[in-house]
Amino acid sequence: MSDVVENSRREKLVEAAATLFHRRGVEATTLKDVAHASGVPMGSVFYYYPTKDDLTAAVIARRAAHVVDMLERHSRRAGPVGRLHALVDVWMSDRYVDAQFGCPIGSLCFEVARVRRLDATAPFQTLIDWAESQFRALGAGAKSRAHAAHLVAALQGISLMASVMSAPDLIAGEVAYLKNWIRGLRILDEHPRRQAARRTAERAASTHRSRST
Amino acid sequence: MSDVVENSRREKLVEAAATLFHRRGVEATTLKDVAHASGVPMGSVFYYYPTKDDLTAAVIARRAAHVVDMLERHSRRAGPVGRLHALVDVWMSDRYVDAQFGCPIGSLCFEVARVRRLDATAPFQTLIDWAESQFRALGAGAKSRAHAAHLVAALQGISLMASVMSAPDLIAGEVAYLKNWIRGLRILDEHPRRQAARRTAERAASTHRSRST
DNA sequence: GTCTATATTACGATAGAC
DNA sequence: GTCTATCGTAATATAGAC
Questions:
Q1: Cα distance from B98 to chain A (closest Cα, Å)?
Q2: What is the pLDDT along chain A (213 residues), one digit of tens a residue?
Q3: pTM
Q4: What is the rounded (10 degree) CA torsion for A100, A151, A180, B184?
Q5: Which residues of chain B neighbour A158 with C-beta distances below 8 Å?
Q6: Where are the domains of chain B?
Q7: Of A95, A197, B13, B144, which is least surrounded by CB within 10 A?
Q8: Is the distance from CB of A118 to CB of A112 less than 8 angstroms?
Q9: Å between B165 CA and nearest CA of chain A
């Protein structure tokens, strides 16, 4: 669940920084901007975060924690298909801001990684690992890792393109595309006979479930 | 073919700027860096490009022209599958630098678009339009636009992730994935009978071609 | 057209009073 | 712990000699 409620002053700073880093990028936002947006005077930001890199690392850690929380929430859903759909639906909901500023995770991690003064691998590592285990649960076997990378890449790429083109509809289209792909994966990886059997069983199970709940 | 050979001084400046913008990002590279890398003294860069935005616009135009040239080259290939494969193979060849600094097109256009002082839509517009017409030639019909967006998004996303994770293999894996997907698309959009007929015909044609050339 | 020398501004960071 | 005042540096950009 992660210790989110912290000292309040520190928390206000990372929160403001996270928003500004998303909207303008980290190089383009000044610490004065962060101070102003958070209502904390300039001198104090250096008390809490001695350097800009320290603040940036805190923003990355915050994003990583949010990813963990989000995936934990989605993991409570019924099957792997529903979980993966829940993940891509996040991009659907966020599409209007992402089409302005890009994905908050991707843009941040990329900018930081390119200069390479900080480690920013955590959010993507978590995302790919989680997706992989969903694909594995779905029966994709050895292909699961590639599927996971493909899924996360598609979401990142479409966010980038949508922001370049100012086109939230690009995200909506890709989300539909991906959900359909995920749905269809089960069909391809199975023998027709088994497939028919499983589907009949599932239909029965889902009818039963929707009645009993 | 676009007027590439220009005055030499201007050209040296955009070339150096393009490289540095790719390696560090535009915000993070100073005009002094560009002056030094191109061997042009500080005062002269302002003679050719009065502001940093002017230089940045020139770099974007240069990238856009390169995309046009590249696609023109790939358009000379035999069929739509071969053309699309040729496109994704570019990412395969570039994977080691892209895994360090990201895709030179995506990283540049995104950074510029987020601050939104310049138009950076051209490269992606060209890329998507071209891919769409290939998918259409392939018989994907109304789905062609979505396929095109999906393809370019996948390439952009995997470049971003590869650079965050310092993992060129991610790109190699995704390229294999995409080539296989493109190959398989024909199968899905066709009736099994027609499919078998076409494949037999193609096999014969390709055997004939490989002999005659 | 070319380049040196410099103006101007604003950034990250510090010192030190409270 | 908190905040004001300010330092040193480096960025974009200009002026003006050649």
A1: 10
A2: 444 445 689 999 999 999 999 999 999 999 999 999 999 999 999 999 999 999 999 999 999 999 999 999 999 999 999 999 999 999 999 999 999 999 999 999 999 999 999 999 999 999 999 999 999 999 999 999 999 999 999 999 999 999 999 999 999 999 999 999 999 997 555 566 666 676 676 656 555 544 443
A3: 0.90
A4: 120
A5: 149-150, 153, 157
A6: 9-212
A7: A197
A8: yes
A9: 6
